[in-house]
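hey
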């Protein structure tokens, strides 16, 4: 009886230990894939941040883009990242009359800002003169605002002074891009097979085009925020 009881206890102990070892190995492998997916997502985010891309059609977003399917190897794991996105703006362009003062860094509006906008409402907006495109260089933005005097300070001096100008103020736009990261063998990556799904808002100082263009890529990704980061089971 003693031998039978001991044998049963030993069998249960060996089974438990074997299961624990197997679970440890499986968990380690899953964690490795998740860490690789996190790393690939980070790389893709930085790749997209400074490029004029918002992926209206879902596609691979890793660089270089010499082929339709790009992947990256991290800790022996080969990952793919696909993106889809859109642009958004919380405000419409504003038409306003004003004068470029002699400093060429200051504009005074004919409309009282204290009655139409909260303080610093226009900070970050781009200034253009549709009738005289040479007045401002591309991506001249408002850096500060004084509502009491209805004046704003520009990031770049105007090319000339003038009064009674019909100015257009263009609001900053954001590219909202969703990243889907999966094992390269299961690409294309979608919400159905993604190990990591991240939603990132890229703020661009210029709203021209879709907020940043190939000819003015220095305006891309002036700031960014991650609004969502989901990690799922690595066996997807």
């Amino acid at each position: 009886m003693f031998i039978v009881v001991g044998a049963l206890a030993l069998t249960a102990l060996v089974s438990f230990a074997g299961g624990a070892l197997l679970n440890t190995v499986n968990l380690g492998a899953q964690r490795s894939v998740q860490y690789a997916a996190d790393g690939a997502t980070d790389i893709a985010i930085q790749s997209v941040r400074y490029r004029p891309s918002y992926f209206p059609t879902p596609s691979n977003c890793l660089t270089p883009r010499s082929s339709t399917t790009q992947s990256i190897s991290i800790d022996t794991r080969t990952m793919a990242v696909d993106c889809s996105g859109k642009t958004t703006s919380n405000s419409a362009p504003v038409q306003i009359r004003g004068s470029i003062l002699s400093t060429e860094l200051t504009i005074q509006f004919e409309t009282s800002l204290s009655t139409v906008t909260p303080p610093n409402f226009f900070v970050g907006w781009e200034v253009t003169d549709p009738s005289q495109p040479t007045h401002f260089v591309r991506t001249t933005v408002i850096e500060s605002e004084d509502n009491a005097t209805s004046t704003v300070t520009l990031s770049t001096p105007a090319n000339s002074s003038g009064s009674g100008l019909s100015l257009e103020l263009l609001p900053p736009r954001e590219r909202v891009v969703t990243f889907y990261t999966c094992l390269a063998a299961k690409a294309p990556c979608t919400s159905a097979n993604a190990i990591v799904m991240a939603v990132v808002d890229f703020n661009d100082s210029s709203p021209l085009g879709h907020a940043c263009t190939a000819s003015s890529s220095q305006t891309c990704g002036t700031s960014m925020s991650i609004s969502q980061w989901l990690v799922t089971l690595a066996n997807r």
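The radius of gyration is 27 Å. The chain has one helix and twelve strands.
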